Amino acid sequence: MSTDQAVKMDSQPPDSMMTEWGVDLSPKQDKGVCKVIMRPGDEAESPMTGDRVSVHYTGKLLNGKKFDSSRDRNEPFTFNLGRGQVIKAWDIGVASMKKGEVCQLMCHSEYAYGVSGSPPKIPPKSTLIFEIELLNFKGEELTEDGGVIRRIKQKGEGFSNPNEGAIVEVHLEGRSGGRVFDSRDVQFVVGEGEDHSIPLGVDRTMEKMQKGECCLIYLKPQYGFGDEGKPEFHIEPNAELVYQVTLKDFEKAKESWEMSIEEKLEQAVGVKQKGTQYFKAGRYVQAMLQYQKIVAWLEMECGLVEEKQRAVHDLILVTQLNLAMCHLRLREYTHAVESCDKVIELDSSNEKALYRRGEARLLKNEFSLALRDFGRVLEVNPKNRAARTQISVCKRKIREHHEMDKRTYANMFQKFAERDAKVRKTKLPRDDSTKEERINPPAKHRRRSREHL
Question: Which residues, other chains included, contact 245 with Cβ-Cβ below 8 Å and sequence gap of 6+?
């Protein structure tokens, strides 16, 4: 069917239009969403579920009356495909498009605004026509720095996801530069994928997946095999990776509210040991994931018998100290300070917490605060030589900072003085002349003065 025919059907009954209009995209094949391509796209790939898509559109009623247009606002519309953020017809129709494609979608009310419509512009039970241009699309960013991007090829079942500590069964295929370097079925515990040569980015994506889901995961080096690479897979340092992962099955771990205090304490000891193993191996992010489990389990526990309350107190204290060390290694100094603060709330004289907070503040160039922390370390333990050394460093840094400020202000004042001198120099001849005239008036003026007298 031609485009001209598509836009000149207002006089036909809706049912006949559904029958004649373009390609039926509706899952039930009930002509609820029909599409006519007005301009083909320039790429073969279509957006996937969860992708962030950007479109221009114009929406009309069957009588041709326009009710909305992004072009009139000169502002593209963006949404996550397949997440229910738009009407059903859009989730279905846009998923069939290519980048650069322009199409018309005819949408039955069941796939649009239903029996209620969207007053005042869209009457109840309205069949709508949209002209849509797909401008761009990209995968769903699972991390704030864009280091892990997911694109869903096959949507999973239900609404349940694996949690931290869940046992998952997956099939994965890893690629680097188009080369398949890993293809296997594997079972592992979420948060411990490193033990099975599974990169951090894939491990962390598990908590977003559903049973039966198949997705592509794009990893920046820091979420792949980092600056060490993976010799066993012939992966060079700082390589970007792509994994295709299918979640075949999973068994969720107990949530904290499902566990008794005895279970929490028992598991926390094992998790702490696991975190320490990762830390010693230089896997600081993986170590943090283990330590954070303990905090999540125990930080809200209160009203216990004295023995168990002491055990909880000691575990949280040690865990926060370990988290501070991880943050220091990862140069996350603000987070390191926060972890130390939590320890100091529990134990105001904790030598390690005071020292590590001083380290973090020193590295943040907060020299006076760092000096105070190292001073408190010496109050707790006068024999701490490292703290004495750091105090010397802080004092030197403070002096250097003051000297730098002096030079900065001196240069600034010098520039002001030079500028003022230039201004005075340009004004001086005129001012001197005026002054001289006031002191010694011209002869003619003096004669007139005497005659007057």
Answer: 170, 171, 172, 173, 202, 205, 209, 214, 215, 217
Mean of per-residue pLDDT scores for the chain: 88
Give the pLDDT confidence score for residue 5 in this predicted structure: 40
3-state class percentages of the chain: helix first, strand second, coil last, to nearest 5: 45, 20, 30
- Catalytic-labelled residue, pool 91, 92, 113, 333: 113
Q: Which residues of the chain have pLDDT under 50?
A: 1-15, 18, 433-435, 444-453
**Tokens read off for 166:** 């869940």
Active site residue 92: no
For this structure, is 278 an active site residue?
Answer: no
Q: Is 67 a catalytic residue?
A: yes
pLDDT at 46: 93
What the block records as the tokens of 424 is: 């005075």
Contacts of residue 358, defined as CB under 8 A and 6 or more positions apart, other chains included, come to 370, 371, 373, 374, 377, 387, 390
* DSSP-derived secondary structure for 277-346: HHHHTT-HHHHHHHHHHHHHHHTT--S--HHHHHHHHHHHHHHHHHHHHHHHHTT-HHHHHHHHHHHHHH
What residue has token string 């969720």?
252
Contacts of 138 (CB under 8 A, 6+ apart): 51, 52, 149
Nearest to 400 by CA among 352, 365, 432: 365
51 catalytic per annotation: no
How many angstroms separate the most distant Cα atoms in the chain?
A: 121
Q: Which residue has the tokens 């969860």?
A: 50
C-alpha–C-alpha distance, residues 143 and 314, integer Å: 32
Do residues 377 and 351 touch, judged by C-beta distance below 8 A?
yes
pLDDT at 410: 62
Label residue 261 left, alpha or beta by phi (over 0 means left) and psi (-120 to 50 means alpha): alpha
Which residue is catalytic, options 51, 92, 129, 130?
A: 130
